[in-house]
User: Which sequence fits this backbone?
């Protein structure tokens, strides 16, 4: 993942997006972006700060079809109440009213298959009233 991170970081800092970031981030934030070594750290320093998300979980939840669902099996929060509240809710994906395909490669180096939000993929597929199709492939990358 570090090599991929370095490539993405270079695109942001030197490539076509550099001027946007230099004008929007403080010099301290820009310096922190120079030091990132992982995709999640790059997400924090580049995407979260640039787009004014509250934190990494806020960014991931806003960009995810799962929405604001935080399954307790991932222990994202210590709060038992929020975990219990979201354990039976499927977030945005439960409201899918047209056929929707979720395709995920098990060997994706950026987005692990567990980002589908559950240890029970069949339950995810069943959540969209028959409109969600989940395809997990053994290989395929990102």
Assistant:
């Amino acid at each position: 993942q570090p090599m991929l991170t370095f490539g993405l970081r270079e695109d942001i800092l030197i490539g076509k997006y550099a001027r946007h970031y230099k004008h929007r981030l403080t010099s301290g934030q820009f310096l922190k972006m120079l030091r990132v070594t992982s995709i999640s750290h790059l997400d924090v320093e580049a995407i979260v700060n640039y787009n004014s998300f509250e934190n990494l979980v806020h960014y991931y939840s806003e960009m995810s079809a799962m929405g604001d669902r935080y399954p307790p099996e991932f222990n994202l929060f210590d709060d038992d109440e929020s975990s219990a509240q979201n354990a039976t809710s499927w977030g945005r994906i439960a409201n899918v009213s047209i056929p929707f395909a979720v395709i995920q490669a098990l060997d994706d180096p950026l987005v692990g298959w567990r980002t589908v939000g559950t240890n029970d993929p069949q339950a995810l597929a069943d959540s969209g009233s028959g409109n969600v199709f989940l395809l997990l492939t053994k290989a395929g990358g990102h």
